[in-house]
Design brief:
Blueprint lengths: L5 H26 L8 E3 L1 H12 L16 H10 L6 E8 L6 E8 L5 E10 L20
Antiparallel strand pairs: 1-4, 2-3, 3-4
Length: 144
């Protein structure tokens, strides 16, 4: 069995630590969600107004939802809103009352599936899908 000097052991331990740190940093950079976070922050009353404006559009229909698509801009807004108290996110449809542009209203969701409307973001709607059937009916954003 080969024996190692104290110097060799220190060099080996140092190189192992550095290699592990580099691998960890690379893995973090690869696995961390990237997004611009370029949406804007809006208040719950502004979000409610946009939601109500959207719901008055004549082409709104109730149908079974097959899936949902979100934009990278929306992911960026979610990333900027991330906190330990949030267990997920919901994106509501909205229409900006002043520009009539469709927007996505991004809101965090707590452990109980309730909207955390203290911080709400908005993004251009883009290629997003529809809200799931299990939306929070008691949310200040969707109250009619």
């Amino acid at each position: 069995m080969k024996t190692f000097s104290l110097r060799q052991l220190i060099v080996f331990a140092t190189l192992s630590f550095v290699a592990g740190a580099v691998i960890g940093i690379v893995a973090y950079e690869i696995l961390t969600p990237k997004g611009t976070g370029t949406g804007s922050t809006i208040s719950a009353p502004q979000a409610n107004s946009a939601f109500k404006t959207y719901m008055t559009k004549p082409e709104i229909i109730c149908d079974t939802i097959k899936g949902y698509n979100i934009t990278t801009e929306q992911v960026g807004v979610m990333y900027s809103m991330m906190s330990a108290s949030l267990k997920g996110f919901r994106i509501y449809h909205g229409v900006d009352p002043s520009t009539r542009q469709e927007i996505g209203i991004v809101v965090g969701v707590d452990l109980y599936g309730k909207d955390v409307a203290s911080r709400v973001g908005s993004t251009v709607w883009g290629a997003s899908g529809m809200c799931p059937i299990i939306c929070d009916v008691s949310s200040p954003i969707t109250s009619m």
